[in-house]
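Hey, resending since the last one bounced:
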Amino acid sequence: MEHTKRNKCSACGTSNTNHGLLLLSDLLDETIGRIGRVFLKIFKIDENHTLFKLFEKFFYKISVFFGFLKYSDDKDKSITGRSRLVWDEAERRGIKMQQVIMFGRPIEQYRAFVNGKCINFESIPVPPQMSCSGYSWVDDKFILSERLRKEGVASPSAGSALFLGTAEKIFDKLEKPVIVKPRSGSRGRHTTTNINTKNELKKALDLAHVISLAVVVEEHLFGSVYRATTVDGKLVGFFRADPPSVAGDGHSSIEDLVKNKNQNKNERMGDIVIDRDALDFLARQNLGINSILEDGRKVNLSAKTGRFFGGYTREMLPEVHPKMHEIFERAAKIVDIPVAGFDLIIGDPTADPDTQRWGIIECNSMPYIDLHFFALEGKPINIAEHVWDLWLKK
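The structure tokens again:
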């Protein structure tokens, strides 16, 4: 098998971003962001506050005047599947929606004409009267974990560290294995799982530090990764995403198993790629591409999940245990944002969660709602319907 050498970063997966910009953004979050959270709390201002809206309106008008900004009716230029889903649903409802073109390039900013008013938004339109206080902290994985556990919602034990010494102290206290990931950010960028030794911890810290000053060291939960999406405090989607994996037959190497799986995969799935990230992942399991797995043994090949990496996906909302609805209604109240995407790890979401070791590992304030619509299996759920329904409520 040819081991793919990508120009892009394998630790970023399919969502490559400039590392320097991510690190700069993280630095600003760690300094200005902390000051800003205090300021917003004191003066009770959020991004839907009148001052923010007036500035936003002024910015768009002045940009149009000087020709920096234009609007496009071409929904095929939507930056993400999430925005395309929102646009398609707007069209079905007779809502005019346009995309912002800045300096000739389409960006993830849009406007729509709703109830006689023009609204500007990033990908997901949220009514200005809705409470949004959680936006200032919800993407911080450590703060999220602390607040959830304080309110009795399951989340793995974790600590935050800037330096190796602090990370090692956290490592010593936690049950092994552990995970190291950037304190902010999404899509599993520069995350390392299944860490059992301090040498592995150092490598993981170095990887996370490429895009983040602060990292989270947390206990490694086992099971599939799920996305629970809430809109207006209600659970409206529950999506399963597995990493790429192979099952042994007693005589084939992992390399041959991967090759065979790629040749017989669903056409909507990406190829399983054996890159440096995958080789390191296997090494932490004391395996290599030439290892022969005993018959029936299943081995994951990456920490990345989803069909684009060659993994399995399924929409499971009708199947989940009733307690899941109660739990995520509570979680939605804690984060206090209109649309939230909670990532969790659990063995079996159809069984009573109180009988399992599980937890919420992060919350996305701008979730990819299209995941629920394009799963490989299960009934598709159009979360965009629930988003636009927010505008029907007084």
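The chain has a mean pLDDT of 87.

Sorry for the duplicate.
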